[in-house]
Every structure is written in structure tokens, then in C-alpha cells.
Amino acid sequence: MYPKEPVTIVEVGPRDGLQYEPDFFPTAEKIELINLLSKTGLRRLEVTSFVHPKVIPQFRDAMEVASNLKMVEGIIYSAPVPNVKGCERALETPIQELALFVSASETHNRKNVNMSIDESLAALRQVADMGLKAGKRLRGYVVTAFGCPYEGRVPIDGVLRIIRAYAEMGVSEVSLGDTTGMANPRQVVEVFETVLEVAEGTAVAAHFHNSRGTGLANALAAYQAGIRIFDSSVGGIGGCPTAIGAMGNIATEDLVCMMEEMDVPTGVDFDKLLKAARFAQEVIGSELPSYTLKTGRPNWKGAGGTDLG
Ligand code: ZN
Known about the structure:
Number of helices: 12
Structural class: alpha/beta
Mean pLDDT: 94
CATH architecture: Alpha-Beta Barrel
Low-confidence stretches: none
CATH topology: TIM Barrel
Bound molecules: zinc ion
CATH superfamily: Aldolase class I
Distance between the termini: 31 Å
Largest sheet: 8 strands, parallel, barrel
Number of domains: 1
Number of strands: 8
CATH class: Alpha Beta
Shape: globular
Strand content: 5-15%
Oligomer: single chain
Strand order of the largest sheet: 1-2-3-4-5-6-7-8
Radius of gyration: 18 Å
């Protein structure tokens, strides 16, 4: 039930996390945070987004961030590109991976990008071609893969259709996103068992938000179903109590702690990760939602340690 096979963690805090932060996270500090994360053993970092700055002002510095990182050999640096324009900008930077987005829910996709799913897929085909020609790796997000706040249950056929379309475009990895934190562990197992059966040749990742406190339970369920790639956000950035509510990804250090406690290797240095999380917390200026940022790892030696009762 719980094998000890290693997992790969895709750090999405500097993108998915900061996307929900109401205040601008200064450019120099973004670069510093990503450089700190580059020293933790994480091998996959999503560092910014090439959406139009008017849509998400937080990423108006995307070019600057992506061009000024101390890129570490062996790490894949990634960023979402919503369209050809964004792709052109991304291709001027040393980013190695482009992330594509489409929602499995027709209504959510329209609200998000003002296009039908088919229109989105057609537009993304162009972006994928551009990226592949430039030698970039492609990652494809299936947004609202487990549930949609407008449509409720999202039929698995819609998810599979997008995965097939991505595979045809040359996407090497798909990430199934529980964008608004609606999924439950039983559903997660069912969805991933089906997806892994049909996804031949395409790697599959799990992307959970902790809106209802089920994020880590869902990650464990996905692991049991055979998933070995997980998206998470350092400090759980993006889940601060703001007008939008708690929307953050599961915190990377919480995921690392759980997996390592289960003897599942992550390759990530927990203490260095906490250093990056503390830095992010300082810049944001309010407490981040991460648990282990407050408690640390369990202290099995019994000498002191943190016990909050
Ligand atoms: Zn997300």
C-alpha cells in the first residue's frame, strides 16, 4: 500500500503561490526565493508566469525574473505560457520548460481565458509547436480536473480528452489540478487509476490545493494510486487569509516531511527548504499556512523539540 519509491516534487510557489498574493512580491526577492529553492535539492521549479501583466500584475516582472536566476545544473526551470505572445516572451529567457493550461470544465475555461476548451486546445497547439521548435520541454495542466466550482463534478472523459490532446501536442508531462480544493482521497484514487491506464508515455503529476484541508490526504491517495510527481508550494504560499480565502497549494515542506517520515525519498533538504519558506514569510509579512514551518519535523529522540500541545 505504501511503497518506498522516490517522488519528484515540482515547486510551484513562485508562480501558483504568488499568483494569489495580493501584494507585489518584489522582483529581487522573487529571484532570491528561487535561488534559495535551487539549493534545496528540488529539481523542478516553476518560477513565474508569462500571462499578460494586466491579467496578473504579480508577474509583470516575468522577463526580469526568468532572465536573472542563478540557474543550477540539473534543475528544470518552468513557467506557464497562455498564448503565442506569452510564448514569445518566454522564449527570450533561459526557461527550459513551458507550461500549458486548459480547464477540464467548459465554464471554468471560459471564465478563465474566455475561450471554449476546443479553442484553448487549438491555441495551445501553436504554442506547443513554437516551444518544441525552440527545444523546450512541455508540461500540460488540466485545471479543475477533480471538480469545478461552476459545474460540480467533472466527467473523467473530459480529463482524458485533454490528456490525449496534450500527448498529441508533444507534452511530456500532464499535471491534474484540484484547482479549488474540491477533491477527496477516494476520488483521487479513482481518477488517477483511470488516467494512468491511458496516459502511456506521458508522465502524470498531482497538483492539490488545500482549500479544505484535504491536500495531504489527497497527495497520499495519489501516491497509493501510483503517482510519483507532486506539485506543491513552499510555505504554502498563496493560502494566506485574503479576500479570496485559503486557496493555497499544499506546502512543500509538509509534503517533504510526510513523505520522508514514510521513508519515501524526496531528494529535498528539509532545513534548507524551511530557510526558503521563512524568507518567503518574511517578505509576505504574515504567517504562511505551512504546518511544518511552525512545528518542524517530529522529534523522535524526545529531547525538547516543538510541542504545541
Ligand atoms: Zn494550482
